[in-house]
Amino acid sequence: MKQAISFITLGVRDLERSRRFYRDLGWRESSGSQAAVAFFQAGSVAFALFSRDALAEDAGVSAVGSGFPGFTLAHNVASEAAVDTTLAEAVAAGGRRVRVGERAPWGGFRGYFADPDGYLWEVCFNPFFPLDADGFVHLPE
Amino acid sequence: MKQAISFITLGVRDLERSRRFYRDLGWRESSGSQAAVAFFQAGSVAFALFSRDALAEDAGVSAVGSGFPGFTLAHNVASEAAVDTTLAEAVAAGGRRVRVGERAPWGGFRGYFADPDGYLWEVCFNPFFPLDADGFVHLPE
User: Fold this and answer.
1) CB contact under 8 A, B6 and A135
2) Chain B neighbours among A 76-135 (CB < 8 Å)?
3) What is the ipTM of this complex?
4) What is the pLDDT of residues A80-102, one digit of tens each?
5) Among A3, B4, B26, B95, which is disulfide-ready with A135 (CB 3.0 to 4.6 Å)?
6) How far is C-alpha B62 from the chain's CA centre?
Protein backbone atom coordinates (compact mmCIF):
# COMPACT_ATOMS: atom_id res chain seq x y z
CA MET A 1 0.00 0.00 0.00
CA LYS A 2 1.45 3.31 -1.07
CA GLN A 3 2.40 5.75 1.65
CA ALA A 4 -0.53 8.01 0.88
CA ILE A 5 -3.57 9.37 2.67
CA SER A 6 -6.15 10.57 0.17
CA PHE A 7 -8.92 11.70 2.52
CA ILE A 8 -9.53 12.48 6.15
CA THR A 9 -13.24 12.40 6.81
CA LEU A 10 -14.80 13.67 10.03
CA GLY A 11 -18.19 12.29 10.93
CA VAL A 12 -20.18 15.25 12.24
CA ARG A 13 -23.51 15.61 14.02
CA ASP A 14 -24.63 18.78 12.21
CA LEU A 15 -23.11 19.17 8.78
CA GLU A 16 -24.20 22.77 8.26
CA ARG A 17 -22.74 23.79 11.60
CA SER A 18 -19.45 22.14 10.74
CA ARG A 19 -19.15 23.47 7.22
CA ARG A 20 -19.89 26.95 8.57
CA PHE A 21 -17.19 26.54 11.22
CA TYR A 22 -14.50 25.56 8.72
CA ARG A 23 -15.61 28.25 6.29
CA ASP A 24 -15.49 30.83 9.10
CA LEU A 25 -11.99 29.61 9.85
CA GLY A 26 -11.15 30.80 6.34
CA TRP A 27 -11.30 27.50 4.47
CA ARG A 28 -12.82 27.35 1.02
CA GLU A 29 -14.96 24.43 -0.03
CA SER A 30 -14.31 22.57 -3.25
CA SER A 31 -16.92 22.96 -5.97
CA GLY A 32 -17.07 19.18 -5.75
CA SER A 33 -18.89 19.49 -2.42
CA GLN A 34 -22.48 18.31 -2.30
CA ALA A 35 -25.40 18.84 0.05
CA ALA A 36 -24.45 15.74 2.02
CA VAL A 37 -20.68 16.13 2.03
CA ALA A 38 -18.26 19.04 2.24
CA PHE A 39 -14.81 18.76 0.66
CA PHE A 40 -11.80 20.96 1.28
CA GLN A 41 -8.41 20.48 -0.35
CA ALA A 42 -5.67 20.73 2.28
CA GLY A 43 -2.40 20.14 0.47
CA SER A 44 -2.22 16.64 -0.91
CA VAL A 45 -4.99 15.43 1.37
CA ALA A 46 -8.69 16.04 0.92
CA PHE A 47 -10.57 16.92 4.09
CA ALA A 48 -14.22 15.89 4.18
CA LEU A 49 -17.16 16.51 6.52
CA PHE A 50 -19.90 13.91 6.39
CA SER A 51 -22.75 12.85 8.65
CA ARG A 52 -21.43 10.76 11.51
CA ASP A 53 -24.17 8.18 11.11
CA ALA A 54 -23.68 7.98 7.36
CA LEU A 55 -19.93 7.57 7.78
CA ALA A 56 -20.36 4.66 10.19
CA GLU A 57 -22.96 3.12 7.91
CA ASP A 58 -20.62 3.39 4.93
CA ALA A 59 -17.97 1.49 6.85
CA GLY A 60 -20.56 -1.00 8.07
CA VAL A 61 -19.91 -0.30 11.74
CA SER A 62 -22.00 1.00 14.62
CA ALA A 63 -22.04 4.79 14.99
CA VAL A 64 -22.10 4.46 18.78
CA GLY A 65 -19.06 5.99 20.37
CA SER A 66 -18.18 8.63 22.91
CA GLY A 67 -15.34 10.33 24.67
CA PHE A 68 -11.84 10.87 23.32
CA PRO A 69 -11.87 9.96 19.64
CA GLY A 70 -8.23 8.93 19.86
CA PHE A 71 -6.78 11.15 17.16
CA THR A 72 -5.77 14.74 16.61
CA LEU A 73 -5.15 16.92 13.62
CA ALA A 74 -2.38 19.48 13.76
CA HIS A 75 -1.93 22.79 12.07
CA ASN A 76 1.67 23.91 12.32
CA VAL A 77 2.59 27.55 12.20
CA ALA A 78 5.84 29.49 11.93
CA SER A 79 6.06 31.11 15.36
CA GLU A 80 4.81 31.01 18.94
CA ALA A 81 2.84 34.20 18.31
CA ALA A 82 1.08 32.53 15.40
CA VAL A 83 -0.09 29.75 17.72
CA ASP A 84 -1.96 32.29 19.81
CA THR A 85 -3.43 34.20 16.87
CA THR A 86 -4.57 30.97 15.21
CA LEU A 87 -6.22 29.76 18.41
CA ALA A 88 -7.99 33.12 18.62
CA GLU A 89 -9.19 32.72 15.03
CA ALA A 90 -10.58 29.30 15.86
CA VAL A 91 -12.42 30.67 18.89
CA ALA A 92 -13.79 33.56 16.81
CA ALA A 93 -15.13 31.00 14.32
CA GLY A 94 -16.95 29.17 17.11
CA GLY A 95 -14.32 26.68 18.21
CA ARG A 96 -13.56 25.92 21.81
CA ARG A 97 -10.12 26.63 23.27
CA VAL A 98 -9.07 23.37 24.92
CA ARG A 99 -5.52 24.27 25.83
CA VAL A 100 -3.95 27.72 25.63
CA GLY A 101 -0.65 28.09 23.84
CA GLU A 102 2.07 26.68 26.10
CA ARG A 103 5.55 25.29 25.80
CA ALA A 104 5.59 21.52 25.24
CA PRO A 105 8.06 19.25 27.06
CA TRP A 106 9.82 18.51 23.74
CA GLY A 107 10.59 22.17 23.14
CA GLY A 108 7.80 23.27 20.84
CA PHE A 109 4.90 25.57 21.65
CA ARG A 110 1.32 24.46 21.16
CA GLY A 111 -2.30 24.82 22.09
CA TYR A 112 -5.47 22.99 21.15
CA PHE A 113 -8.93 23.89 20.00
CA ALA A 114 -11.97 21.70 19.45
CA ASP A 115 -14.23 21.93 16.43
CA PRO A 116 -18.05 21.80 16.88
CA ASP A 117 -17.98 18.00 17.37
CA GLY A 118 -15.08 18.14 19.77
CA TYR A 119 -12.48 16.95 17.26
CA LEU A 120 -9.15 18.22 18.46
CA TRP A 121 -6.81 20.44 16.50
CA GLU A 122 -3.34 21.12 17.81
CA VAL A 123 -1.92 24.46 16.73
CA CYS A 124 1.81 24.04 16.94
CA PHE A 125 5.08 25.83 16.43
CA ASN A 126 7.73 23.15 16.01
CA PRO A 127 11.22 24.61 15.62
CA PHE A 128 12.61 21.21 14.62
CA PHE A 129 10.44 20.53 11.56
CA PRO A 130 10.63 23.18 8.85
CA LEU A 131 7.45 24.33 7.15
CA ASP A 132 7.20 25.05 3.48
CA ALA A 133 5.53 28.19 2.14
CA ASP A 134 2.13 26.51 2.29
CA GLY A 135 2.52 25.49 5.91
CA PHE A 136 3.31 21.83 5.36
CA VAL A 137 5.84 19.80 7.27
CA HIS A 138 8.63 17.88 5.58
CA LEU A 139 9.95 15.19 7.86
CA PRO A 140 13.56 14.11 7.51
CA GLU A 141 13.82 11.09 5.21
CA MET B 1 -6.12 29.80 9.49
CA LYS B 2 -4.49 28.44 6.38
CA GLN B 3 -6.16 25.54 4.65
CA ALA B 4 -3.51 23.11 5.78
CA ILE B 5 -3.29 19.95 7.84
CA SER B 6 0.27 19.38 9.01
CA PHE B 7 -0.17 16.20 11.05
CA ILE B 8 -2.67 13.45 11.62
CA THR B 9 -1.82 11.69 14.87
CA LEU B 10 -3.39 8.42 15.93
CA GLY B 11 -3.39 7.64 19.61
CA VAL B 12 -2.54 3.95 19.89
CA ARG B 13 -2.60 1.44 22.72
CA ASP B 14 0.57 -0.41 21.72
CA LEU B 15 3.00 1.72 19.76
CA GLU B 16 5.27 -1.15 18.70
CA ARG B 17 2.32 -3.12 17.38
CA SER B 18 1.11 -0.12 15.39
CA ARG B 19 4.45 0.87 13.94
CA ARG B 20 4.97 -2.75 12.90
CA PHE B 21 1.56 -2.80 11.23
CA TYR B 22 2.22 0.32 9.15
CA ARG B 23 5.73 -0.85 8.31
CA ASP B 24 4.36 -4.22 7.22
CA LEU B 25 1.90 -2.34 5.05
CA GLY B 26 4.97 -1.04 3.24
CA TRP B 27 5.29 2.36 4.86
CA ARG B 28 8.69 3.73 5.73
CA GLU B 29 9.27 5.64 8.94
CA SER B 30 10.98 8.99 8.94
CA SER B 31 14.41 9.14 10.53
CA GLY B 32 12.79 11.80 12.71
CA SER B 33 10.86 9.08 14.53
CA GLN B 34 11.68 8.51 18.18
CA ALA B 35 11.06 5.72 20.67
CA ALA B 36 7.83 7.37 21.78
CA VAL B 37 6.53 8.53 18.43
CA ALA B 38 6.54 7.18 14.89
CA PHE B 39 6.42 9.57 11.94
CA PHE B 40 5.60 8.78 8.33
CA GLN B 41 5.46 11.34 5.54
CA ALA B 42 2.31 10.81 3.49
CA GLY B 43 2.31 13.48 0.82
CA SER B 44 2.02 16.92 2.34
CA VAL B 45 0.72 15.54 5.61
CA ALA B 46 2.77 13.88 8.31
CA PHE B 47 1.20 10.79 9.85
CA ALA B 48 2.12 10.08 13.46
CA LEU B 49 1.56 7.24 15.90
CA PHE B 50 1.69 8.17 19.57
CA SER B 51 0.51 6.65 22.82
CA ARG B 52 -3.21 7.21 23.21
CA ASP B 53 -2.83 8.29 26.83
CA ALA B 54 0.03 10.63 26.02
CA LEU B 55 -1.94 12.18 23.15
CA ALA B 56 -4.92 12.90 25.38
CA GLU B 57 -2.61 14.26 28.06
CA ASP B 58 -0.93 16.56 25.57
CA ALA B 59 -4.30 18.00 24.63
CA GLY B 60 -5.28 18.20 28.28
CA VAL B 61 -8.34 15.99 27.89
CA SER B 62 -9.41 12.65 29.33
CA ALA B 63 -8.24 9.60 27.38
CA VAL B 64 -11.50 7.81 28.12
CA GLY B 65 -13.41 6.99 24.99
CA SER B 66 -14.83 4.01 23.20
CA GLY B 67 -16.72 2.89 20.15
CA PHE B 68 -16.75 4.58 16.77
CA PRO B 69 -14.02 7.21 16.78
CA GLY B 70 -16.01 9.30 14.33
CA PHE B 71 -13.45 9.65 11.56
CA THR B 72 -11.99 7.64 8.73
CA LEU B 73 -8.87 7.84 6.63
CA ALA B 74 -9.04 6.93 2.97
CA HIS B 75 -6.51 5.51 0.60
CA ASN B 76 -7.67 5.96 -2.97
CA VAL B 77 -6.50 3.65 -5.71
CA ALA B 78 -6.79 3.61 -9.48
CA SER B 79 -9.10 0.64 -10.06
CA GLU B 80 -11.64 -1.68 -8.47
CA ALA B 81 -9.12 -4.50 -8.60
CA ALA B 82 -6.65 -2.38 -6.64
CA VAL B 83 -9.22 -2.00 -3.87
CA ASP B 84 -9.25 -5.75 -3.37
CA THR B 85 -5.49 -6.18 -3.57
CA THR B 86 -4.92 -3.32 -1.12
CA LEU B 87 -7.43 -4.76 1.35
CA ALA B 88 -5.60 -8.09 1.05
CA GLU B 89 -2.28 -6.35 1.78
CA ALA B 90 -3.79 -4.77 4.88
CA VAL B 91 -5.06 -8.13 6.11
CA ALA B 92 -1.67 -9.72 5.42
CA ALA B 93 -0.07 -6.99 7.55
CA GLY B 94 -2.42 -7.83 10.43
CA GLY B 95 -5.33 -5.50 9.71
CA ARG B 96 -8.94 -6.57 9.98
CA ARG B 97 -11.18 -6.53 6.93
CA VAL B 98 -14.25 -4.55 8.01
CA ARG B 99 -16.04 -4.32 4.69
CA VAL B 100 -15.14 -6.19 1.52
CA GLY B 101 -14.76 -4.21 -1.70
CA GLU B 102 -18.26 -3.30 -2.88
CA ARG B 103 -19.89 -0.74 -5.10
CA ALA B 104 -20.93 2.39 -3.19
CA PRO B 105 -24.29 4.10 -3.80
CA TRP B 106 -22.50 7.10 -5.33
CA GLY B 107 -20.84 4.99 -8.01
CA GLY B 108 -17.43 4.28 -6.58
CA PHE B 109 -16.07 1.01 -5.28
CA ARG B 110 -14.71 0.70 -1.75
CA GLY B 111 -13.96 -1.49 1.20
CA TYR B 112 -12.65 -0.85 4.70
CA PHE B 113 -10.00 -2.27 6.95
CA ALA B 114 -9.24 -1.52 10.58
CA ASP B 115 -5.75 -0.97 11.93
CA PRO B 116 -4.69 -2.59 15.24
CA ASP B 117 -6.61 0.01 17.27
CA GLY B 118 -9.69 -0.25 15.12
CA TYR B 119 -9.06 3.01 13.24
CA LEU B 120 -10.84 2.72 9.94
CA TRP B 121 -9.25 3.02 6.53
CA GLU B 122 -11.41 3.17 3.46
CA VAL B 123 -9.75 1.79 0.34
CA CYS B 124 -11.53 3.45 -2.52
CA PHE B 125 -11.70 3.64 -6.28
CA ASN B 126 -13.41 6.93 -7.11
CA PRO B 127 -13.86 7.39 -10.86
CA PHE B 128 -14.89 11.03 -10.34
CA PHE B 129 -11.77 12.31 -8.59
CA PRO B 130 -8.55 11.86 -10.53
CA LEU B 131 -5.43 10.66 -8.74
CA ASP B 132 -1.97 11.98 -9.41
CA ALA B 133 1.01 9.70 -9.87
CA ASP B 134 1.54 9.53 -6.12
CA GLY B 135 -2.04 8.52 -5.40
CA PHE B 136 -3.30 11.88 -4.19
CA VAL B 137 -6.69 13.36 -4.97
CA HIS B 138 -7.11 16.81 -6.49
CA LEU B 139 -10.58 18.10 -5.84
CA PRO B 140 -12.12 20.52 -8.31
CA GLU B 141 -11.48 24.14 -7.24
Assistant:
1) yes
2) 76, 86, 89-90, 98-99, 104, 110, 112, 117, 119-120, 122, 124, 128-129, 131, 134-135
3) 0.97
4) 999 999 999 999 999 999 999 99
5) B4
6) 23
